Amino acid sequence: MGIDKSTDVKQKESNGFVFYEVGGIVSLCIPGNTLYQIDYLRRNNPDIKKWEIEEFINHFHIHHTGEHEGLQASYEAVTQLVIALREAYLERNFVVTCHTWGEVVSFYEKIEGAPTESEPSTEPLPENIWCGVCLKKIFYRLRTEKDAEFPAATWAHCLECGSEILVSSGVTRTLTLS
User: Fold this and answer.
1) Which residue has the higher pLDDT, 104 or 52?
2) pTM of the entire structure?
3) Could you tell me the residue range of the domain that residue 79 belongs to?
4) Which end of the chain is more exposed for a tag (fewer CB within 10 A), N or C?
């Protein structure tokens, strides 16, 4: 069900990123890890699409000191990843995603009906949320003014320490080729 271990591996480097292509899957993971994850995903979901595998394998979390800074770092990572993919794969089109609430960046090739449009969050706001300053789930007060830099984001303030917390946002998708 997985990929043959003798599959050719191609490696490309661009803009500080190292990409491996294993069995047609473009990955940031080393080939052995990529093969393991592809096999695992296909065993658990035989109908999984190639773009879904790539998005799962290629996701990474941005570490930050505060929510707003984390969102800025996520968007900067998206910009750098778009540049790298454009340079490394001139002939192919990728979708770079930023799941802003969890500050998760990923990418996948634009194929097989893969989503390409950004989506606002449709989830109801949680009753409480994690505060990175208090290091626990807390209750919050919604911020009333919109954020000019991140207009899709819903921000709040921790009721215990007052720090700003991202409550909800959505998925931003950027194409490497327009």
Assistant:
1) 52
2) 0.82
3) 9-120+171-175
4) C
